[in-house]
């Protein structure tokens, strides 16, 4: 899978994909992430990519021209299955969307800044608008990194048995159960007996029960989703 990202702060996206599982995904050739500095498509020598908003009001808006030119140029090489705009007024990101996006070949992500991007770009080019939560970040880059990470780890071959996504929280609308490692007795605090007895069926039942209980307590809304 290839993910292209348009940003005015490419530096913010230098590190997140250079470590751990994302690094492995890239080294295995399963994931390619390319960042593109929008200023490359700036309309004048001042490298301008934003302007005052019509109708007045504080805050700049990212101009349509540099963005349209950037998208058109990147589209010459390939057809994007999705053009995603990261914005707090987008649809909330969740595991279901991560699963769906992990099955695409080519994705383009646009990171907003300031007051956001001109509405006409959203209407003309963008196929999906994503928010990573009900709070406002200073730009879409960190949100894009979250989405790329969530998608990247789902690509076939990225995770091994130890890190398998099958039992993650949310994969079946349940939170993950508690986990324990050695020692079995940590300063008098003992691991639940069922995990030490070696009966896989009982372990599975216990984990399911714990997941259900945790979800009821913390995220009852998940149990109402189909
Ligand atoms: N840009 C700024 N805040 C954001 C958010 N919560 N989600 C996605 N993109 C954003």
Automatic annotation (TrEMBL):
Residues 206-226 are annotated as: Disordered. It catalyses: guanosine(37) in tRNA + S-adenosyl-L-methionine = N(1)-methylguanosine(37) in tRNA + S-adenosyl-L-homocysteine + H(+). InterPro entries: Alpha/beta_knot_MTases, tRNA_m1G_MeTrfase_C_sf, tRNA_m1G_MeTrfase_TrmD, tRNA_m1G_MTases_N, tRNA_MeTrfase_TRMD/TRM10. CDD domains: TrmD-like (cd18080). S-adenosyl-L-methionine binds at residues 112, 132-137. It is found in: Cytoplasm. It is an enzyme of class 2 (transferase). Signal peptide: none annotated. The keyword tRNA processing applies. The keyword Ribonucleoprotein does not apply. SUPFAM superfamilies: alpha/beta knot. Its EC number is 2.1.1.228. Its main location: cytoplasm. GO terms for molecular function: tRNA (guanine(37)-N1)-methyltransferase activity. Keywords: Cytoplasm, Methyltransferase, S-adenosyl-L-methionine, Transferase, tRNA processing. Transmembrane segments: none annotated. Specifically methylates guanosine-37 in various tRNAs. NCBIfam families: PRK00026.1 (NF000648), trmD (TIGR00088). Homodimer. Belongs to the RNA methyltransferase TrmD family. This is tRNA (guanine-N(1)-)-methyltransferase. It comes from Sediminibacterium roseum. The gene is trmD.
